[in-house]
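Quick one: sequence plus NAP SMILES, need structure tokens.
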Amino acid sequence: MKLAGKTAVVTGGNSGIGFGIARKLAAEGATGVIIGRNEVTLEQAGRDLGGAFLPSRCDVTHIESLKSAFRKANDTLGPIEILVVAAGGAVGPGTVQPFAEVDEESFDAMTELNLKSTFFTVQKALPYLADGASVILVSSIAAHKAFPGMSVYSASKAGVRTLARTLSAELMGRRIRVNVLSPGTVDTPVFDKMGFTDTEVSNMKSGFKDIIPMGRAGTPEEMGGAAAFLASSDSSFIVGEEIVADGGVVNL
Ligand SMILES: NC(=O)c1ccc[n+]([C@@H]2O[C@H](COP(=O)([O-])OP(=O)(O)OC[C@H]3O[C@@H](n4cnc5c(N)ncnc54)[C@H](OP(=O)(O)O)[C@@H]3O)[C@@H](O)[C@H]2O)c1
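Reply:
Sure thing.
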């Protein structure tokens, strides 16, 4: 077990990719806390993880909520050795919109969830991170490839990717490595949170799948494998870097 005895906090650990990552970290011996808003899925995820991760309710777009969640996580776990920032994704109907129609409200909601919350999640975790900790930010292939209708999401995720470089440089004195995991299409509940009909969701998923050279979507478990590598000492010389896990969309 690569992560035996390690402590971890996974934001968005109650759903989709974050849950897949928490499950893999637990399988590798880590224990910790999963953060989300939905109490039902938080409790369920905690049970599904066999008690290795405790649920913690927190809205990552509220800075006071983040401060309190990390203070509590530290009380429970002691210094945090792995931080995975997976909370993000959809904000309802404003998630996918033609550029000309994006209004200030949906711009703010998208950047608040996908960029600003990532920035402040790491900042508010910082006092409780162990020296030598591994921080993993979840970006997206949308930071690398154009997807019409996703201008604000893509810009936010590009911001997340570049944040890993600057934070790694600033935190080098404490040997904290900040790396990025950029998934391609992974079938998770995110697609049901964009305000589309079932048919539109199904068309969107097949449109994304059609462009994947490997011919299938990725799984939360596969994202867990990549995150566990970045969390472990196997990646000890990798810093400010990115793993694109997308079945070949960006590079092939
Ligand atoms: N699925 C994909 O194809 C794909 C591709 C590239 C990148 N990504 C990225 O991967 C990450 C996870 O996405 P997913 O597909 O797993 O989506 P998901 O199943 O919808 O999960 C999103 C997670 O974020 C949490 N979250 C959202 N808003 C929050 C808030 N304000 N405060 C606290 N938690 C919040 C959700 O918890 P609650 O339900 O409790 O709010 C949930 O646990 C996102 O950053 C997304 O952009 C996904």
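The mean pLDDT is 97. Residues 7-245 form a domain with the Rossmann fold fold (CATH 3.40.50.720).
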